[in-house]
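Bumping with the actual sequence this time:
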Amino acid sequence: MNGGIDRDSYYEVLEKSQKGGCDITTWLIWFLQMYVRAIEGSQETIKKALLVAKFWQRNNQIEINERQIKVTNQLLEAEPMGFEGGLTNRKYVSLTKVSRETAKRDLGDLEKKGILKRISRGRSVSFSLNLEFL
């Protein structure tokens, strides 16, 4: 895939259309499928942009530091799937290059402020974005 177009299928359908006489039905079907795919991709992009905008609009009064903003934005970009296994202390350390203790404080602060919610407990605590109010 390049730019949303499958080049191999494009050239295949183009060749069939050129060698098959004046019938361009196959090409029109391919074109309309690509058009639908483009619309669906645009809808997903718009949905994600709206999610990000609503999230920050809802949380614009909450004070968080640059590291927390960076990680929150990365979590938003990963939606709707989120981070595999959630956001852990280890992942936070890796993303922000801070100590484990600083990561623990930052994550606890984000949870306390309602930006994150715990999705697992115990030794390996993980978090996801709190998107319940969107």
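The tokens above came from a reply further down the thread. DSSP finds five helices and three strands in the chain.
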